[in-house]
Backbone:
């Protein structure tokens, strides 16, 4: 922990480190074309001073100068012979981007705007923390995604929906919190390139509905100002039924004149009081939330109405595509929840106004450990799209079990949608490269809370860090990101760093092995979503079934089944439709197969289930051995905290192994070939 | 509803009715040997006036007289020629009993105490409500069970653990409620013979721990006085850890002198402030509750310590036997929760002091729709025993589904324990007939709440009514009780009454048919305990397993299994141990059998599962038809409320049918012979 705060600084701890020849560059600093009093600049420069001071022990105040012509023609200003120069450039670098070059002892950071400077300085601090020399640096870094957002599912009573790291640090007992932690949150988010944050849960109820009223404006505006100082736009989740709940209207019909007039007035009020607000995130017609369907209107009707009204204020509407029938009858094998997002949104492709973004979960179901990529991504070709992933590990271990999610996010980004002959990956689509749009990007459901360590498990902070870094630079590898995070957080000692990277990199596969097999998903304890319950969602209303019987399991989503495969462009559709060509890790998502089905490994499906579940537990045991090798080489408190989580993970992994194996053995009556213990 | 109250009067509605020649008996009333100002007498006589007024329209004030010698030798006092005489007798009638006789136009109610008069008057009112003549009456009614108690699982925040009829009417937001409803509750309870009530939940936490402190004494004492006026002793549930939580001691060891001294002082204080308190109910060492095991002491050590200290105040300690390992590993087939109560308590039989009562749930598990009788009942031979049943339908439909429980309670009472050659049924044991003790009886977990109709489903009030009547007179049949209740509540019209009795009497078998088969129990949704989840408790820590695999299901509790059967006296032990002799409705509780096992019906086990589940749903459909035939013949509001519950029951029954059938079909691969739809 830092000083007397009740929370840690994570990867911004700025532990003292070896100077790789960088300290000498910062004796004198020149600012060309930027106003030192700009809030973002002020924060950036303060961060630089803080980092240099703590990491390299540069204790005297750094001397700053600004060329005498006061920045008006900074490009022509004379530069000093040595030192650090921050210079505004008017072309060659896109907004939020920066170029960092070192030549002859002069380190130059060029950017088109203050946010570029901020990110450049965090780049410098990262290099110093990782003990990498800045000499001979020559890099141009521009964000791949225009929007890089965190979605907080924080409720105003202080709870966090699907939060596994304490309570909210934004809300408590119906009040908005603004304190030192708000600043530190913004610093952490900005340090990895986050430029937007939705403060409150997408399920907007009770007091949260009132966030857009006078009751909360002052506090929300304070947070917006703090965020703005770190280049982060504040967004709010909106209750679609606000005209009824706040306005005393008897409708929320998006085509109703009274409703429109009400929203117009409301938005004028909101943007007057929170002038730098980015806009709104809306979950409508989903899991009991109100929406335009209630009034026989389309999703586009609803989104466009709001978008038109926030447009004069520079706002945008982010509209979630998580719309499906959550009261399905499990006996109904024709309805397929996986189809729902596409079926609900594809027809209106092109109808959404240009300040609407559709936010699409990475998979068609709900953040399972393994799903195919949502066919809406790249399925939509004339609509702004944002990819939603979940850093909070709702179905992937809940920050008890280690599950580094960046490899999963990378797979999604790398997925070829075939929406056009080239530039067709999900990364291309959501970055705007494919269709040339600029309102697009990535959002993550945040995994933060008011725990001392922000993320429950110390190692889960790698998902917070990694999401930001990946959203900024989608070409970074999961391993590079892991190494950065481990170095900054723990140590630059190669063995320590390698061990942590190894733990992170293997963790997703391990988690998958001991949980639900081959893309079938679920099998989790209802409601909590932690731990196994093979039939927990099998006879439920949630559209989540494995359809296991005496002979086999899996959901037939091929042409002969629900037809879901046809939502993909070719050749994906045909590939998924074929048992032979379907990627094996997704086999049971697309096909119902007998337990005796032979996999490419030469194992039967049932033997694969047994083997992978035994392996999963063994791998957790190995992870624990690796962690134990770090004892004494990382801070004791962190060692012990994570050690305890690993104990719980091992318990959980064994429960999964034994319940899944027993379930399928009791159903199939086919014994494990290796005669291990199955109950 | 009565007058302007927000709750109904249930069977004490005193609807106008046909006078079966009874009205004339009440023109003049004489009280011999009783003080009219005694609170119980006052309440009893007020009730009589109220009932006569409302049912028979006797509007003028009834004239009372007391013989001039002021009751001192009432037996010799001259009686008037006609009318109603209430007379105290000093012998021939046990406490709380009464004799009612009519001769030559004089109705005489004799009793040894005021409570006898109270019960006698409720008897008279019942006869009038049922339009039965009091002429030629000649009955002696004495309660079979000394203690007839309701246990309320009400929490001080107003919630009710396992309550299905609104919130508590005793507590709200941490405060004790005393109002008109407290009186009506006491009237209703007294009218069916209840003489004890435990106000708060056995799981004593948070504010409830403070019920035995100055914070709440005044209000609790008020309730105790109200109850006392209706012959009901107030009891409280106790937090065994009170010395730690209230006393700032660092132990609750029952042999620790400081602990004993603390309790001694506490009880002096409590009984001084609530002088008519009956004593305490204690759930210790159970499901996370503290208890003597924590300190290496026995259950007897804990109970006796408390009992010795309440004895000078006339108090008793009721100690629950629901002690088992609730963190069992499902993989462990040696541990058997069913064994736990007996294993934990039998060795100390005889060690419990004489003002301790062990309260024993009817079955060894937990209020399932079908369980064998707990072997502790009659297994203990030198210990006061109380039978605990649950009127709240936690596992039996939650006052949504109709499940009249009196037939189940009757079965338990009628069970021959073979604890001695004769007088050996559970009814004998808990009434004190078997072992000659007087601290014993029956307790029911109450099904009441602050719903307008008290019990959620109007028909569930039959369980409240029935428990009291049965506890008072264990020889009453379930059908007699149902008929009384239906007549008093709805109508004396024969068809209406017969229809309601039919619905009630069939309901338990129907519920059993569509839920878990042949005594195996559970298969319910975890936590809520409503609706099916066949594997919901199969891989859990609660000791609740069906052990179904590809070949069969059931738990082997025979000599070759967990040995549970040996906890019974012979011949019960051998009977349960034998597949052939075991009562078929309990077959899967005691035996693990193949799906192809042939039942006495000539059906296989699996076919029985299919058939009974289809039948169960059909029977619910038939119940609905019967109910619909009552439309217009009973009050509309009640008709509609119950109709809506039946819809939910039908939905629930279909879920059970389809999930259970599908589960076993998917596991066994044996199709339904009748080729009905199994998913």
Residues:
């Amino acid at each position: 922990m830092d000083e007397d705060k009740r929370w840690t600084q994570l990867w911004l701890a700025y532990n003292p480190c070896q100077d790789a020849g960088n300290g000498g560059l910062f004796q004198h600093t020149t600012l060309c074309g930027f106003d030192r009093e700009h809030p973002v600049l002020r924060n950036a420069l303060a961060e630089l001073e803080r980092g240099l001071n703590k990491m390299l022990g540069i204790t005297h105040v750094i001397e700053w100068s600004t060329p005498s012509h006061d920045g008006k023609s900074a490009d022509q200003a004379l530069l000093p012979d040595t030192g650090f120069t921050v210079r505004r450039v008017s072309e060659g670098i896109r907004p939020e981007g920066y170029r960092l070059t070192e030549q002859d002892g002069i380190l130059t950071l060029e950017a088109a705007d203050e946010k570029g400077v901020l990110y450049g300085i965090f780049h410098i601090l990262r290099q110093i923390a990782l003990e990498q020399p800045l000499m001979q640096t020559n890099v141009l870094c521009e964000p791949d995604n225009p929007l890089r957002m965190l979605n907080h599912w924080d409720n105003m009573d202080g709870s966090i929906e699907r939060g596994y790291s304490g309570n909210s640090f934004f809300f408590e007992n119906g009040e908005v919190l603004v304190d030192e932690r708000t600043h530190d949150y913004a610093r952490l988010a900005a340090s990895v390139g986050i430029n937007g944050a939705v403060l409150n849960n997408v399920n907007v109820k009770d007091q949260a509905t009132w966030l857009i009223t006078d009751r909360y404006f002052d506090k929300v505006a304070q947070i917006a100002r703090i965020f703005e100082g770190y280049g982060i736009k504040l967004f709010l989740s909106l209750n679609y039924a606000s005209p009824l709940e706040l306005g005393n209207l008897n409708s929320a019909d998006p085509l109703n004149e009274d409703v429109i007039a009400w929203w117009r007035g409301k938005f004028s009020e909101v943007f007057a009081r929170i002038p730098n607000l980015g806009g709104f995130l809306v979950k409508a017609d989903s899991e009991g939330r109100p929406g335009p369907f209630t009034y026989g209107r389309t999703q586009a009707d609803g989104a466009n109405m709001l978008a038109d009204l926030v447009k004069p204020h520079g706002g945008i509407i982010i509209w979630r595509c998580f719309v499906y029938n959550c009261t399905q009858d499990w006996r109904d094998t024709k309805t397929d929840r996986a189809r729902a997002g596409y079926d609900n949104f594809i027809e209106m492709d092109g109808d959404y106004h240009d300040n609407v973004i559709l936010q699409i979960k990475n998979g068609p179901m709900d953040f399972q450990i393994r799903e195919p990529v949502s066919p809406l991504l790249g399925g939509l070709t004339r609509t702004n799209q944002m990819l939603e992933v979940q850093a909070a590990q709702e179905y992937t271990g809940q920050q008890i079990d280690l599950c580094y999610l960046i490899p999963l996010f990378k797979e999604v980004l790398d997925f070829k949608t075939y929406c056009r002959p080239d530039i067709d990956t999900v990364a291309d689509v959501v970055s705007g490269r494919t269709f040339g749009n600029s309102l697009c990007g990535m959002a993550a459901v945040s995994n933060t809370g008011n725990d001392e360590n922000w993320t429950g498990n110390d190692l889960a902070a790698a998902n917070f860090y990694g999401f930001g870094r990946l959203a900024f630079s989608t070409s970074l590898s999961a391993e590079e990101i892991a190494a950065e995070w481990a170095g900054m957080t723990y140590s630059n000692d190669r063995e320590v760093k390698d061990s942590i990277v190894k733990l992170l990199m293997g963790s997703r596969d391990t988690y998958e092995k001991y949980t639900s097999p081959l893309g079938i998903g679920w099998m989790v304890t209802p409601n909590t979503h932690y731990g196994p319950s093979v039939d927990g969602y099998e006879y439920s209303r949630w559209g989540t079934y494995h359809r296991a019987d005496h002979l086999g399991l899996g959901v037939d989503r091929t042409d002969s089944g629900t037809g879901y495969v046809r939502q993909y462009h070719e050749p994906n559709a045909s590939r998924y439709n074929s048992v032979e060509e379907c990627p094996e890790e997704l086999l049971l998502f697309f096909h119902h197969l007998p337990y005796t089905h032979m996999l490419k490994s030469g194992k039967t499906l049932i033997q694969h289930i047994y083997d992978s579940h035994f392996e999963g537990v063994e791998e957790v045991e190995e992870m624990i051995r690796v962690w134990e090798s770090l004892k004494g080489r990382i801070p004791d408190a962190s060692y012990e905290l994570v050690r305890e989580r690993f104990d719980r993970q091992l318990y959980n992994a064994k429960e999964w192994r034994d319940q899944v194996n027993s379930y399928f053995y009791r159903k199939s009556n086919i014994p494990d070939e290796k005669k291990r213990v199955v109950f």
Residues 201 and 489 of chain B are 29 Å apart (CA to CA). The first helix of chain B runs from residue 39 to 56. Residues 71-77 of chain B have pLDDT under 50 and may be disordered.
